[in-house]
Amino acid sequence: MKSTVVLLFSLFAAAFFSVRPVRADRPNILYIMSDDHAAHAISAYGGRLASIAPTPNLDRLANEGALLTNVFCTNSICSPSRACVLTGQYNHINGSFDLSGRVDPGKQMLAIEMRRAGYQTAMIGKWHLKAEPADFDHYCVLPGQGRYHDPIFRVRGDKPWGKNTIEFKGKHVTDAITDLTLEWLQAGRDQNKPFFLMHHFKAPHDYFDNAPRYESYLADVDIPEPETLWNRDPKFGSLATRGADDELLPHVGTSIGNRNPRRSYLRDLPDLYPDEFPKNYDPADYSDEQNTRFAYNAYLKKFLRCVKGIDDNLGRILEYLESTGQLDNTLIVYTADQGFMLGEHDYQDKRWMYEESQRMPFLVRYPKSIEAGSRFDTIIENVDFAPTLLDFASAEIPNTVQGRSFRSLLETGDEPDAWKQAAYYRYWMHMAHHDNPAHLGLRTKTHKLIYFYGCNYDGGYQTPPGWELYDLVNDPHETKNLIDDPGNAELVLRLKQQLAEMRRQIGDDGSHHPKSEAIVQEFWDFDEEDREKAVQLSRRYLQQRLQELDKDQRSPRTWTGK
């Protein structure tokens, strides 16, 4: 009986992972993804940090390959974004809505199809999905967020998933992940097969513990500040993010300075990184502006030191590939799981649909078919990554994949026929951790429409709904919400119709969380009656938040329950 079961399993495995003939001209594929590395913290993108914190190895990928400026995540939070990359599906289809997200073995499409195409597959670094990455030939992954120092990694072994571990005492996680990748490339893989390697850095996720060797980096530099750190145009935001009469400004979006009484970098960073603040620092001794500037500089310096570690370790990988003659035969992608707010609008973290959070960096080098110095503004979503990588591998793209390959764009410079003209976005984890209301929307090349519907999966813990419209051509930093401008009425109607149609096309029909969808539909038109309801919800929510603060409830579970 036992032998029969083994035989049946072997036959099933052979069918499931049947290997296609390997083409000699196919590239190795190295997919490098960091965590929360905003595009405007890469000097090739030319942001405000480019001159003080250059990233020469990342810039090399851009200079010798392509840089994409309009690449967006569909949900700016770690696990859901990774699930989109792995499956090529939006979160309402792959089921990874929030930080509890998982993609079970047998469904890790990208690894499965690469293996079937004859690639040897590996996943090294930050995984951040609950299930075992069992569909990879090799894995060595951090548990959850993982540690910056003395990191522990989960490996395949005789014990159940999660129990087989290795530890790197005395090492920083960025160095350890690179060591593991280089070890696998040198000795762990089958040199007769092309490789598909997902190399995932933990950095620069907060809190930002850089390797000790970078402590002096930027120490005496005043970090350039975004104008919106200090100035919020009266037209920025909406009832959803400001509240009635601006009463929710302290309570929506965690802050750099002391705006948010629940959570701010001014509250957290002095204890974590006292060396970044004046000796014997007491915020009571300084003005609000001085305190915000202290917190901002501590935040950015620690963040950029982690980025420096990434760039230096990328240099190690490029040097190895070059020394072994594999560099030009390896398709190298560098991206992040989402962007990050670096003080814009006095916000920290990600989750927002605002540009700095929604945009992902995307650099790709493959000189055999991608022209050096290419720049593209085509709208790409992270669900498009997997089919593109599979296309370069001459692998099958399953019909379960919702994204499309943009290989032809990279190789010819022309957008594929009938290519998408808008990116879809939906953040589900209502008011969790960083006080971001649930919202959805679309982003075209010229405009962004955001609908903060303001409730959790169960339709509960409501915050006021509201709509926002930004003209990205004339207002790229999204400072003025134009939704109530009478001259935009026709544009708003057209974009709302486009958003509704996009939801229909990708299957976000509300059936996944119907109580939430009922709220989405209730305030969709946002007429005067809806606006008055939103004002009342603002008043009610403010009282609830103040009661939580009075009881020192600083981490209420907001994303489920009534």
TrEMBL record:
UniProt entry keywords in alphabetical sequence: Glycoprotein, Hydrolase, Signal
InterPro entries: Alkaline_phosphatase_core_sf, Sulfatase_CS, Sulfatase_N
Top-level lineage group: Bacteria
Family matches, as SUPFAM superfamilies: Alkaline phosphatase-like
Classification via Gene3D superfamilies: Alkaline Phosphatase, subunit A
UniProt domain Sulfatase N-terminal: residue ranges: 27-393
Matching Pfam families: Sulfatase
Leader sequence segment: 1-24
Family: Belongs to the sulfatase family.
Protein's name in the database: Sulfatase
Organism encoding this protein: Roseiconus lacunae
